[in-house]
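User: What would this chain look like folded?
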Amino acid sequence: MKIKNIEITHPDKLLFPENAITKKEVCEYYARIADFLLPFVKERPLTLRRYPDGIDSDGFYNKHAPDYFPDFIQRLTVPMEEAHMQMVAANTATELVYLAGQNTIEFHMALSKIDDIKKPDQLIFDFDPSDGDFEKVRTSALILKELLDSWDVPSFVKTTGSRGVHVHIPIIRSESFKETKLIAKKIAAKLHAECKNLTTLEQRKNKRGDKVFIDYLRNDYAMTAIVPYSLRAHRKAPIATPIDWVELADKSIGPKTYHIKNIFLRLAKKKDPWENFMQKSIKIQKIDK
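Assistant: Here's the prediction, encoded as structure tokens.
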């Protein structure tokens, strides 16, 4: 799509000042990546991470849909503990680009769709290094891959564009978040038992030492994950990039390898590793080990 159809105020504003990346370039990125990104977010509530003054200033998370957003931005009514929240969705490139024009750099998604919001369609494991050592992340994530393979469970990996990787397992929507989180916890415990020298399940940061935190806690209602192909608010505009497992084993690949300047070179040469993500969905009972 051409972004000239959408009003973008202050297109020359530097959202990534150190790298001279403007709001217009961010909008152009989201217009161009839309066909890859949208299948992962359609009909899902989105949390926007917006940076009105660029990434060198404090941004904010935007869960509520602002009243001033135009009518073509879809609102989803999402039940919360005591009330309902109006959240935005992005089902079209036009919506995606408008939201980028509102200084949204990062898109974070729910793990469920609005038509059955209390039942997730994926599990997620976030490998978060306490000391920034990506080699520990690489090793522990590959051990999880071996574990899941031994159970014949499909898994998908993406670099986060930040410090670690996320591993996703697509599941058939049948169980509640409470039930799937318990299964995720069991998997995390089995993984930790395989590599105690590398990983931790300790929730308190000051108790983790130099180990990789296996974060299964995201498998809960109203929690989010960074969207595949979303930009991240870090220098050079890195991207949360779906990769295949062979690539993760390649030590030249790190959490910020792919960014706004090279992602389309990658996509021109390589098939999207997550193209058949939902077609691989399995019954959660299959991994309730």
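The longest strand covers residues 122-129. If you want, I can go into more detail on any region.
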